[in-house]
Structures are given as C-alpha cells and as structure tokens.
Amino acid sequence: MQITIRHGMTGAKMATGVAVVVDVFNASTTAVTVLERGAARVLAVADPAQALTLRKANPDWLLVGESADEAISHQAFDLPNSPHAVMQCGEMGFNGKTVVLSTLSGSVIMTEMVENEQCDIILTCGFVNMGATVRWLHGAGVDSVTLIPAGGLGGTHSPEDAMCAMYLKNELETFPNVMDALVRFLRGSESAERFWGDSALYNESDFNIGVELDRFSSVVSLEKEATGIAVLKKLDE
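Request: output the structure for the sequence above.
Response:
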C-alpha cells in the first residue's frame, strides 16, 4: 500500500483516491463519538453562521461546535466541540438525530475535502477508531491512501494530528507503535495546554478520550450530500 501524508488545506486539495482526515483535538474524535452515541449523521460545516441557519430551519437538529466569531456566543451551540460533553449526554440525546458540527479547523478541512473530485472515498479517523479504520483499509484492498492531518488555525501543524497520521501509517505498514510514549509526549505539548489550568478551553477528559486507542469500532465516511453539505456517517450504514 502506498501511503502519503499531506497536511492541512493543501493536503485536502491534493489528495486522490482514498483519503483519511485526522483531527484528534477534537473534530474527528467528536464526530466519531456523536455517531457512536446514536446520531444518524453529522453534517460538517465550516461557517458557524451556516450551522445556526441550518439549526433554525431544523429545530430538532443538534448543534455542536465552537466559533472564533465574537458575534456568535458559545451558548448558541447545544454542546461544545467536546467528546466528553457528548459522552455526558448519553445515547438518548443523539439517537437517530442529525447533528451539525462546526469547528475551527477540522470541519473546515472536511468541507474542503468533499469538494475534491479526485477522491473516491474519504474517511475520518482519530486514535479512538484507529483499529477499525486500519482493518477497513486493509480489507478493502486499498492500493494507495492519502492521510491528511488537519492541523490548527492558519495552516499550523498540530503534533497530535501529525502523530496520529503517522501512527495510522505505521499500523497500515505493520510497523511497531508505542502509544504510551506518544501520549506522554502529547500531554506535555503546546496543543495540550488547552486542557489544563484556569485558562483551559476544554475538559481534561477531552484529552483523555482523544488519546484513548480503539475506544470505538466505527469506520466513519465523509461524503457530499445532494445539498452540497459534507456529511459523516458510519460506513456500514
């Protein structure tokens, strides 16, 4: 299997064939968790204003995410971009529902990916569904795959996304991985600062869930609906 790693928006535009989008903290992890909690689908949108418009037109849909726009309050979202918050809600809160996900980076990359007509199949993966994604890619007889670490705002590289993509590459090539060392490194990284202390943006449990290997068994696909919106679903549904 030929495996290429291309970062961020450039990677989203250059990917061909089978591609895997990786956003560990938190978009990929949140989306997988939402689907595991029973949601029918997750609509990924880049613009939080679009997310609010979709919610207004569909009051029974749930809105999950975050916004850098000071004009859009965090209270406008039902839940933050947080797998921990999703887990706290339980399955009844999501069962059979449509969830709209708008994040600062991951959903932006996802919306770009579905516009790439060179991609035949797109998946999203974090550590939480690593094994399932590896097994699917091997079982599908994929000849080549592009792995796309989403990174952060402004095209910055995020160590958790880069390391997750490399972990996935190693698993596909049956090279050894050492998850404990990776978690120790990430815990001390700049990316993890958002989870600790008085200035924390997320719950510490979001870090723990994000680096929990194979917590879930879902393979999650990313496609473009007839409406043009990016949609995430369990691949077997």
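The chain has one domain: 2-234.
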